Amino acid sequence: MRRVAALLLLAILLVPFLPPARAQPAKWTFMVYLDADNNLEAVGIDDFLEMASVGSTADVRIVVQMDRSPLGPPDGSRAYGDWTTARRYLIAKDMTPDAAPIVDMGEVNMGDPQTLIDFVTWGITAFPADHYFLVLWDHGIGWQGVVIDGSDYLTTQEAAEELGIKESAIRNYLSVGRFTTYKFKTLTLLDINEVREWKQKRTSR
């Protein structure tokens, strides 16, 4: 009896260290890296609700890491529980941001490239699919970088290095909208005039 009790206790203690459960493979997994820890919080909530108006299906899954702001109105929002940490969700039909998350990560720096790679690794591991689509959601500063969290932000070089993509390739992805906030109500990730200017400088060398 003592041996059985000891094994049960060991199993309970090991639960937090087990890898995330893997869902059945889907056709697409959309991974939304949603940094609303700034004056875009209310817009981030709107986009969360917009994604939830459709929700995930067996073929298409939408996973989100959302970081909220401690700011109140007018720059922030107190809606839906007013939590201020970073949470991960599998977006379900009609879900709201005060729903129980898959995990509450506490306070994180969304401008740290390791935070991004941790999210992508988790998304691919827990929700395998034939295809993946990554959305970097936040303020953007042209081709120089995205996802501003306090005084830190992801440069295109950091994102490229962490995701194993060459810097020139990720800039090309950005310019044609492969990493995009298309259909999300946020500031444009990349200004088309800056893309043209940057390309002209590169070709004139």
Q: Which features does this protein show?
A:
single chain, alpha/beta, Rossmann fold, five-stranded mixed beta sheet, two-stranded antiparallel ribbon, 6 helices, 7 strands
Instruction: State mean pLDDT (0 to 100 scale).
Output: 74
Provide the CATH top-level class. Answer: Alpha Beta
Domain unit count: 1
Tally of separate helices: 6
Radius of gyration, whole Å? 19 Å
Low-confidence stretches: 2-19, 173-195
CATH architecture: 3-Layer(aba) Sandwich
Topology, element by element:
Blueprint: H1 2-14, E1 26-36, H2 41-52, E2 60-68, E3 86-90, E4 103-106, H3 113-126, E5 129-137, E6 145-149, E7 152-155, H4 156-163, H5 167-176, H6 192-204
Parallel strand pairs: 1-2, 1-5
Antiparallel strand pairs: 2-3, 3-4, 6-7
Helix pairs in contact: 3-4, 4-5
